[in-house]
């Protein structure tokens, strides 16, 4: 008789893998067992069709499962009497944590089936959906290691939990109205709480709703409540995301392409930034022509939208750049919401919504959270335990050990205390859950970053990695991890962003690399005003104007410029956008990160018109004299076309495929027109679409650089 042992690794626990194997094996008349072990899942099959089973089982996986490796070995037959699911092997904890997943179609169907015992139950979930990362307290992923620990399963739930043929089999957060968490709004509970919430929203109230990874602030879109929310949140311009009942409702107010629709309706359910039609979604996203849209992703929101027929502003509850609020007391302290819709299951660690745009037929991520992260990968070579702490803005961490790499979700800007505490918790949780004590830590060059201080305080060997080279390495990592066909080529790699410390003490941000060598960059200029110039972009514009011989700015500025008070030298393209937005009279304040870029995109008119530029001795110079003198309405279009043609000219000059990295390329218009021209010129290119193109990928780049270095000389 044929007998085989199969060891499968990857995301194979807590995703309904064992029941799928059980069903397939029994249907093929096989004997043996399946069980979770420290590495993943172990299967032993005996019988006539054992070989056929091996060929088939990986074709028919549950939706959340992702196999990294399969190892098959012939073993002596043990003459099993049946096929069974054995209890988990305890051991080291090397399985992957799944991200939180949106409610699946089967659960949705039961949610609306009046004869089902979970009819209208806002916490329905199964092996294919529901919370994971935000409720896990330890590994292995078992009920007792989640914040569902304090809810005792009722008889019926227990039966489903233990039944290998049930879709609730080993669904760790399984519950029902009799035994699970409860939803509250004042004295109302369960579905009644949701109906009350719907009524209050319709009346124009602002609600705090406990979502999967933290609290959202929610109000009726296109209503006076939005203005009130802006006032209370003290957030005048930064766009709010809007949640719609369904894709048709989105289509009514936004122009969406097929790829955008696919992303919006995907099981990951991210916020997708799309083009507004000419509607009055003015307060939600003032001054710009985009809107972040998404669909209800958990049973609470799905049920809520049954009771209303208008879209909702749904925005993370936090204090400016701090992490999303997850505790009842914290949300009360914020004093923004009129009413709380909450439940009594603890969120162990917060997790934001993911945000993306579509470029060509691929997503371009701004932020990875719910639905996508943590993200784990298997490597072909072994790594010592190593931690990469990222930069300062859009913080994420990456942990590497053995043949595994784990990328955290979005943490936030680590400049404030609350975010730094959260950052430390994520680092500590990852190390604890995976039982890893890092021996090495990789950090940014910038001595003032909290992450750098933290890395140095760990008392292990540190490596400092230049910011923009980290951007490039992050894209190389993604190409290799996704087995992209271009991964072994040599590239001209652009890293254009806002801020990052260079090896010469200047603030870089308009860099081009070939391998590790910086081959070109935008011409330096001095910005007077330090940190202030990031918000007050007049300082940035006046500084650039002075470099080109214009006497711009007030007296105070002139004095500061002459004495170089609080000035820094930069090659940042992000700062060029700020200056250009001012010259074009679009704004004199950076209301939020990326604002000037969005205004320039909105004013872009296409065509070939541009300014002259020169690339000499590796320094890129735009004819800003012409730009500053130009008619203001022509500036945005000509500026973006100039950047586009610089990219194409460089690709031609170095005769290499182009690789895009850095936050500037979140500018969808610039990236789109650039790749369009590269395509026409027959020049290959790559932009990241697994990981964000911005600073959220710095930790990955740091780790990847360490990995290459380690492999070259262990
Ligand atoms: Zn489900
Ligand atoms: Zn129950
Ligand atoms: Fe950066």
Structural notes for this entry:
By secondary structure, the chain is α/β, with parallel strands linked by helices. 31% of the residues lie in helices and 23% in strands. The chain folds into 4 domains: 3-85, Alpha-Beta Plaits (2-Layer Sandwich); 183-365, DHBP synthase (Alpha-Beta Complex), CATH 3.90.870; 374-473 and 698-712, 2-Layer Sandwich (Nucleotidyltransferase, domain 5); 486-688, ATPase, nucleotide binding domain (Nucleotidyltransferase, domain 5), CATH 3.30.420.40. The chain starts with a strand and ends with a helix. Strands 6, 7, 8, 9, 10, 11, 12, 13, 14, 15, 16 and 17 form a 12-stranded mixed beta sheet that branches. The chain has a 7-stranded mixed beta sheet with strand order 27-28-24-23-22-29-30, sandwiched between helices. A 5-stranded mixed beta sheet has the order 4-1-3-2-5. The structure holds zinc ion (2 copies) and fe (iii) ion (FE). Residues 467, 471, 497, 500, 662-663, 695 line the site of fe (iii) ion. One zinc ion is lined by residues 104, 106-107, 125-126, 128-129.
């Amino acid at each position: 008789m044929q007998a085989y042992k199969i060891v499968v690794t990857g995301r194979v626990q807590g995703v309904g893998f064992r029941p799928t194997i059980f069903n397939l094996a029994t249907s093929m008349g096989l004997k043996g067992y399946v069980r979770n072990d420290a590495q993943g899942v172990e299967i032993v099959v005996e019988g006539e069709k054992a070989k056929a089973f091996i060929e088939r089982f990986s074709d028919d996986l549950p939706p959340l499962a992702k196999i990294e490796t399969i190892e098959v070995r012939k073993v002596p037959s043990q003459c099993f009497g049946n096929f069974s699911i054995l209890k988990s092997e305890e051991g080291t904890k090397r399985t992957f944590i799944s991200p939180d997943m949106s409610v699946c179609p089967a659960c949705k169907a039961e949610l609306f089936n009046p004869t089902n015992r979970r009819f209208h139950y806002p916490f329905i979930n199964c092996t294919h959906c529901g919370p994971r990362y935000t409720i896990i307290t330890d590994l292995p992923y078992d009920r007792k290691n989640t914040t569902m620990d304090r809810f005792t399963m009722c008889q019926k739930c227990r039966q489903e939990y233990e039944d290998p043929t049930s879709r609730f089999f080993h669904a760790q957060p399984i519950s029902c109205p009799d035994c699970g968490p409860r939803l509250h709004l004042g004295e109302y509970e369960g579905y009644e709480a949701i109906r009350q919430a719907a009524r209050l929203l319709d009346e124009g109230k602002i609600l705090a709703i406990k979502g999967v990874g933290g609290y959202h602030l929610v109000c009726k879109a296109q209503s006076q409540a939005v203005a009130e929310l802006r006032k209370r949140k003290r957030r005048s311009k930064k766009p709010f995301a809007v949640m719609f009942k369904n894709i048709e409702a989105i289509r009514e107010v936004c122009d969406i392409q097929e790829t955008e629709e696919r992303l919006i309706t995907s099981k990951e359910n991210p916020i997708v930034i799309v083009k507004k039609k000419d509607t009055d979604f003015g307060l939600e996203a003032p001054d710009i022509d985009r809107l972040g849209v998404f669909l209800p992703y958990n049973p609470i929101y799905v049920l809520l939208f049954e009771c209303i027929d208008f879209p909702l502003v749904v925005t993370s509850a936090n204090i400016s750049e701090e992490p999303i609020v997850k505790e009842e007391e914290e949300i009360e302290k914020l004093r923004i919401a009129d009413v709380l819709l909450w439940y009594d299951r603890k969120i162990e660690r917060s997790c934001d919504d993911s945000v993306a745009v579509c470029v060509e037929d691929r997503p371009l991520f701004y932020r990875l959270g719910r639905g996508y992260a943590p993200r784990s990968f298997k490597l072909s070579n072994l790594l010592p335990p190593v931690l990469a702490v990222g930069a300062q803005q859009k913080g994420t961490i990456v942990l590497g050990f053995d043949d595994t790499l784990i990328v955290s979700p979005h943490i936030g800007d680590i400049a404030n205390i609350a975010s730094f505490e959260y950052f430390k918790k994520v680092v500590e949780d990852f190390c604890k859950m995976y039982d890893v004590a890092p021996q090495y830590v990789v950090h940014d060059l910038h001595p003032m970053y909290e992450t750098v201080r933290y890395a140095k305080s760990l008392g292990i060997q540190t490596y400092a990695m230049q910011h923009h080279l980290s951007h490039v390495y992050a894209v190389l990592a993604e190409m290799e991890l996704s087995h992209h066909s271009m991964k072994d080529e040599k590239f001209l790699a652009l890293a254009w962003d806002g801020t990052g410390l260079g090896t010469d003490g200047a603030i870089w941000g308009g860099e081009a690399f070939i391998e590790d060598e910086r081959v070109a960059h935008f011409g330096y200029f001095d910005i007077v005003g330090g940190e202030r110039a990031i918000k007050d972009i007049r300082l940035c514009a006046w500084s650039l104007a002075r470099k080109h011989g214009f006497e711009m700015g007030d007296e105070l500025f002139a004095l500061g410029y002459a004495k170089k008070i609080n000035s820094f030298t930069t090659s940042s393209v992000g700062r060029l956008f700020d200056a250009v937005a001012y010259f074009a009279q679009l704004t004199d304040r950076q209301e939020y990160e990326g604002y000037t870029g969005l205004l320039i995109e909105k004013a872009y008119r296409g065509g070939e018109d541009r300014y002259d530029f020169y690339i000499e001795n590796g320094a890129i110079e735009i004819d800003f004299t012409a730009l500053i003198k130009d008619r203001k309405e022509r500036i945005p279009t000509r500026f973006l076309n100039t950047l586009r043609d610089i990219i194409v000219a460089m690709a031609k000059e170095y005769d290499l495929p182009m690789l895009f990295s850095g936050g500037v390329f979140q500018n969808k218009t610039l990236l789109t027109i650039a790749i369009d021209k590269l395509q026409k010129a027959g020049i290959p290119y790559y932009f990241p679409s697994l990981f964000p193109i911005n600073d959220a990928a710095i930790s990955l780049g740091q780790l990847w650089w360490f990995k290459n270095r380690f492999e070259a000389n262990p």
